[in-house]
Amino acid sequence: ELSRAYDPASATLPHYGERALERESALATLLNQRIPTRFRAARGFVLFNDGLCDKQIDCLVYDAFNYGTRSNLSGNSVVALSKSVAVLFLETLTLTREKFKEDVTSVERLKQRFETDTSYDPYSNTFLTQPLSFLVAHRALENGKSWDVLQAYQDEFQRLDKDGGRW
């Protein structure tokens, strides 16, 4: 469904930044049609107690009813309060091994910020205290050939599990 939503724009948009924006918008639109209305999906930034996250998140799902957003930015971007974020999506057209490692490192860094954030959390006694994270890619290629993404995920899970079993 994502490919069908993105394909018409990719044929007509000449700028890679605009293509990426279209993919991110397609993902948010698809999610907003399927998730409970309490939640909203959009591209944007996460606001922690100690300041704004320096990296824009391609798509995040946040609790719009209980927390809302700090502000709406141009291009349908939001600044979501950290305790409202339920899911993070990092999106790319072509997932290479280098991009995979970079995205896993970004997720790891973000999760550490969530872990140490002291913002008010009315749901502090709930089971899930960290947002879910997904890497979304339209294809996985390295030098024109496909590669074993599943094995790369397993390797990363083993590495992270050795890091205190946090994630």
Overall strand count = 8
Overall shape: it is: globular
Proportion of beta-strand residues: 25-35%
How much is the radius of gyration in Å?
17 Å
What distance lies between the first and last C-alpha atoms, to the nearest angstrom? Answer: 29 Å
Percent helix, as a range, is: 25-40%
Please trace the helix and strand order, writing H or E for each element.
HHEEEEEEHEEH
Largest sheet: 8 strands, mixed
Structural category: alpha+beta
* Average predicted confidence as pLDDT: 80
Tell me about this structure:
- With 167 residues, the protein is an alpha+beta fold.
- The chain is built from 4 helices and 8 strands; from the N terminus they run ααββββββαββα.
- The protein has helices at residues 2-12, 16-32, 97-116, 149-162, and strands at 39-48, 51-52, 57-63, 69-73, 77-81, 85-95, 132-142, 145-146.
- Strands 1, 2, 3, 4, 5, 6, 7 and 8 form an 8-stranded mixed beta sheet that branches.
- α1 packs antiparallel against α2 (16-32).
- It is globular, with a radius of gyration of 17 Å.
- The two termini are 29 Å apart.
